[in-house]
Amino acid sequence: MSKVAVLIPARWASTRFPGKPLHPIAGKPLLQHVWERCMRAKEIDSVVVATDDMRIAEAAFDFGAEVAMTSPKCVSGTDRCAEVARSLKAITHVINVQGDEPLIDPKLISKLARTLSKESHLPMITAATPFRPEDDPANPNVVKVVLSRASDALYFSRSPIPMLRDGGDFPYLRHLGIYGYSKKFLLEFVKWKPGKLELAECLEQLRALENGAKIRVVLTKHSSLGVDTPADALAAEALLTDT
What we know:
two-stranded antiparallel sheet; alpha/beta
């Protein structure tokens, strides 16, 4: 029987925004907003904050979160999740929710968990949303994804894909940075070295495709705001205040 854990990797040493997980937004640390939304998701068995910093750990303990301390040698949030997953013996699947997504949709997390449980053979799953009219396909900070008819990812890119040779419109899909894995696949994934495509695009998920793994893509109308800068934090606070 499948058991799904939501892991929230959080680190202090962000280049653009040091101490970001504890930055106050609408009266709470950023990380607490993420954790509370994850706790509202259904069909999950646990929510764990994964960090190597005691300041983050103590704050998370204070608002009631389960915390797992990880090695400072972890290069990425995925590595941090894999380290925690190794110790969660009863868990079969993991959902990685980035610690800077205070507006993440609990229903999306539930949908990923439900899909992983029903289709336990899936190695990896993620999400995408249709472009809004104001979205620019040429923006390299907005990652695009194209799908097979079975809703598996064919490719992710910072460039517009497909390229419209004769012009016109295309229903572009914006990739959302939430991932689910079978525990077995996650532990295998972090052993692989980054390939040429991953290094060229700076997109870690391409490592899975380069190694022949399928990535199922769940579609959602929801598009949350990630917090990368103090300006993003102000925008997120305005949205949280309105809801």
